[in-house]
Design a protein that fits this description.
- With about 60 residues, the protein is mostly helical.
- It has a domain of about 40 residues.
- Helix content is about 75%, strand content about 0%.
């Protein structure tokens, strides 16, 4: 499944996570991880946008002047 990890191992890991953090905290942790990944992707794309001249606000300011 995940590089040699089977279904049984995934179930054991999820069970251990529930024991450590509790069922109420797991969605918060997953949400935080998702936001972190989203911010990372945005940060990676930002230099590409700056190289292409798509910086936020600079094109609009140049058009208005």
């Amino acid at each position: 499944m995940f590089g040699g990890i089977g279904i049984g191992e995934v179930i054991i890991v999820l069970f251990l996570l529930m024991l450590l953090f509790g069922a109420k905290r797991i969605p918060d942790i997953a949400r935080g991880v998702g936001e972190g990944i989203r911010n990372f992707k945005t940060g990676v794309k930002e230099p590409e946008r700056l190289e292409d001249g798509e910086a936020s606000g600079t094109d609009e300011d140049e058009r208005r002047a």
